[in-house]
UniProtKB/TrEMBL annotation:
<keyword id="KW-0813">Transport</keyword>
<comment type="similarity">
    <text>Belongs to the CPA3 antiporters (TC 2.A.63) subunit F family.</text>
</comment>
<protein>
    <submittedName>
        <fullName>Monovalent cation/H+ antiporter subunit F</fullName>
    </submittedName>
</protein>
<keyword id="KW-1003">Cell membrane</keyword>
<feature type="transmembrane region" description="Helical">
    <location>
        <begin position="61"/>
        <end position="83"/>
    </location>
</feature>
<keyword id="KW-0406">Ion transport</keyword>
<keyword id="KW-0812">Transmembrane</keyword>
<dbReference type="GO" id="GO:0005886">
    <property type="term" value="C:plasma membrane"/>
</dbReference>
<feature type="transmembrane region" description="Helical">
    <location>
        <begin position="35"/>
        <end position="55"/>
    </location>
</feature>
<dbReference type="InterPro" id="IPR007208">
    <property type="entry name" value="MrpF/PhaF-like"/>
</dbReference>
<feature type="transmembrane region" description="Helical">
    <location>
        <begin position="6"/>
        <end position="23"/>
    </location>
</feature>
<keyword id="KW-0472">Membrane</keyword>
<dbReference type="GO" id="GO:0015385">
    <property type="term" value="F:sodium:proton antiporter activity"/>
</dbReference>
<keyword id="KW-1133">Transmembrane helix</keyword>
<dbReference type="Pfam" id="PF04066">
    <property type="entry name" value="MrpF_PhaF"/>
</dbReference>
<keyword id="KW-0050">Antiport</keyword>
């Protein structure tokens, strides 16, 4: 019983944190702040799904955790490359 209460409190705190990061994405002063907030939302989603997996005592969500983490990483790298160079995919080839 105490474990379910602790997991519920953790889910609530991560959900509040995710909404605060969403506010930072909408009102962030710089693009870098928005990218960091987006990456943090991805990590919060991983934590939320992990807590749900523990709450329901199942391993079914572990694939979802890996998928969210992978997509968050790719998104962060893509946004960072876009901020640095202005393009995501370089099409130039040296012949």
């Amino acid at each position: 019983m105490i474990i379910k209460i602790a997991l519920s409190i953790g889910l609530l705190l991560y959900s509040i944190s995710t909404f605060l990061y969403l506010y930072r994405i909408l009102k962030g002063p710089t693009t870098s702040d928005k990218v960091i907030a987006l990456d943090s939302i991805g990590m919060n989603l991983v934590a939320i799904v992990a807590l749900l997996s523990m709450f329901y005592r199942t391993n079914a969500y572990l694939d979802v955790i890996l998928l969210i983490a992978l997509l968050a990483f790719i998104g962060t790298v893509s946004f960072s490359k876009f901020i640095e160079k202005g393009k995501v995919i370089d099409r130039e080839r040296d012949n």
